[in-house]
């Protein structure tokens, strides 16, 4: 079994800062992250950005099947060599934003052990993310949510605060509303820059997102409701009325706000999802979108 992650130092020929490469320094922290996935002995785990393999080596021992996606050709090749004899591990060299999740959970190419593809439950996802594409990765996971259940991600601390924020608090915004439309978010623990090599400029927080789509409960159609949220949150300093008025006729908007008991001068940040959904339903019931 492979031992620990390879070490890549800032300034070394192999380090690619543009890919958000900050590698976990110690096994204890890596264990805490993998522990947050729960018992994965019967699960398929998808790892995003395995890098030098800090989480991968632990997952290789614990998971029924592990699929890891790494965009850096050199790191992907190193990992492939490292796990060449492990039948339950697959290293895919690719961009997580371009991978078709409808296809990767099938049989492992060239496997001599059929049946590994039939996981009894949706996959669990883990990753110490390249921070600059955090939102894009989340949106992609939500898009393919039928394949996933628990998602444990290391993200920039401020982003974790926004994802988990409650309506009416300073950090609540479009990212919070979108994440909470699909998942239940828990902040688990925060790490200082020194936990990584090379250290990033920011603190990092490990988040656990449990899939819990609210669309049916809120009785809203996915695409149109997301579009509505984007308009509602449009410009942060503007009131809900000002953000919505160019999309709905004033009379319709006024009536819908009255009927849902929402004051026109509040900002979208103050509205819990249930209220946003009620307003959306009221507006669309009269087919008033321009
Ligand atoms: N998991 C390792 C760890 O914890 O030490 C590495 C984490 S590092 C913050 C992020 C990793 O994601 C890097 O290995 C980087 O090359 C990879 N990466 C960056 N962009 C990616 C993308 N679009 N798709 C897949 N991997 C990506």
Q: How many strands appear in the DSSP assignment?
A: 9
Radius of gyration (Å): 21 Å
Instruction: Tell me the span between the first and last alpha carbons.
Output: 61 Å
Q: What is the class of the largest domain in the CATH system?
A: Alpha Beta
The assigned structural class equals alpha/beta
Regions with pLDDT < 50 over 5+ consecutive residues?
none
Element-level helix/strand string: EHEHEHEEHEHHEEEHHHHH
Give me the number of helical elements.
11
The mean pLDDT is 91
Describe the largest sheet: 7 strands, mixed
* CATH H-level superfamily title of the largest domain: Vaccinia Virus protein VP39
Secondary-structure arrangement, i.e. CATH architecture of the largest domain: 3-Layer(aba) Sandwich
In which order are the strands of the major sheet placed?
Answer: 4-3-2-5-6-9-7
What portion of the residues fall into strands of 2 or more residues?
15-25%
Shape: elongated
Please bin the fraction of helical residues: 25-40%
Describe this structure in words.
This protein has 290 residues and is an alpha/beta fold. It has two domains: 6-213, Vaccinia Virus protein VP39 (Rossmann fold, 3-Layer(aba) Sandwich), CATH 3.40.50.150; 218-287, rRNA adenine dimethylase, C-terminal domain (Helicase, Ruva Protein, domain 3). It contains eleven helices and nine strands. The chain has helices spanning 27-35, 56-62, 73-82, 134-143, 157-164, 174-182, 215-218, 222-233, 240-244, 250-259, 273-285, and strands spanning 23-24, 44-48, 65-70, 89-93, 123-128, 148-156, 183-191, 196-197, 204-211. Strands 4-3-2-5-6-9-7 form a seven-stranded mixed β-sheet. Strands 1-8 form a two-stranded antiparallel sheet. The radius of gyration is 21 Å and the shape is elongated. The mean pLDDT is 91. It binds S-adenosylmethionine. S-adenosylmethionine is lined by residues 19-24, 48-52, 54-55, 69-72, 75, 95-97, 128, 130, 133.
């Amino acid at each position: 079994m492979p031992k620990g992650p390879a070490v890549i130092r800032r300034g070394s020929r192999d380090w690619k800062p543009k890919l958000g490469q900050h590698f976990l320094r110690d096994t204890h922290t890596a264990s805490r992250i993998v522990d947050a996935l729960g018992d994965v002995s019967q699960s398929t785990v998808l790892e995003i950005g395995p890098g030098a393999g800090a989480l991968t080596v632990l997952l290789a021992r614990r998971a029924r099947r592990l699929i890891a996606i790494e965009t850096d050709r050199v790191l992907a090749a190193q990992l492939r060599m490292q796990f060449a004899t492990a039948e339950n591990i697959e290293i895919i060299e690719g961009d997580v934003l371009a991978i078709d999740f409808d296809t990767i959970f099938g049989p492992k190419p060239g496997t001599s052990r059929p049946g590994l593809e039939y996981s009894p439950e949706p996959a669990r996802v883990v990753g110490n993310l390249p921070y600059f594409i955090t939102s894009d990765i989340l949106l992609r996971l939500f898009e393919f949510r039928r394949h996933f259940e628990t998602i444990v991600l290391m993200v920039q601390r401020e982003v974790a605060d926004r994802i988990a924020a409650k309506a009416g608090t300073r950090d609540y915004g479009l990212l919070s509303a979108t994440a909470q439309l699909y998942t239940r978010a828990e902040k688990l623990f925060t790490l200082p820059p020194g936990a990584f090599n090379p250290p990033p400029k920011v603190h990092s927080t490990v988040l656990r997102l449990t899939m819990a789509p609210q669309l049916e409960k809120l009785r809203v159609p996915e695409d149109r409701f997301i579009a509505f949220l984007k308009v509602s949150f449009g410009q942060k300093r503007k009131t809900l009325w000002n953000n919505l008025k160019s999309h709905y006729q004033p009379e319709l908007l006024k009536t819908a706000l009255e009927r849902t008991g929402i004051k026109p001068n509040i900002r979208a940040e103050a509205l819990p999802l249930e209220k946003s959904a009620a307003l959306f339903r009221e507006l669309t019931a009269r087919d008033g979108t321009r």
